[in-house]
Design a protein that fits this description.
The chain has 88 residues and is mostly helical. The protein is 41% helix and 0% strand. The chain has a domain of 55 residues. The two termini are 24 Å apart. The mean pLDDT is 77. This is DUF3311 domain-containing protein. It comes from Winogradskya consettensis.
Length: 88
């Protein structure tokens, strides 16, 4: 059995630009430099830190799914033996 061929890797996908979002958003300090609004008694600073984590996980997952390349497997027609093809 032949092993699947892998496609040469290229990291030049435009989807990689989405990874700037979880880096840039926490740098915008006016977003969380306040005490209100409070969520379940926690000041905005604390629950926004958790929101930043969720933003990072979401964007990383999207970029991975959009840039992940699966190995190219041989076509099913190529895997049939000549004896099976002659039974028609």
């Amino acid at each position: 059995m032949t092993e699947p061929r892998s496609v040469p890797r290229s990291d030049r996908s435009p989807w990689n630009w989405l990874l700037i979002i979880p880096i840039a958003v926490p740098l915008l300090t006016p977003l969380y430099n306040m005490d209100s609004p409070r969520l379940w008694g926690f000041p905005a600073f604390y629950w926004l830190q958790f929101a930043f984590i969720l933003i990072g996980v979401t964007t990383t997952s999207i970029v991975y799914q959009m840039t992940h390349r699966r190995a190219v497997s041989p076509s099913p027609a190529a895997s049939t033996s000549p004896s099976e093809a002659g039974d028609e």
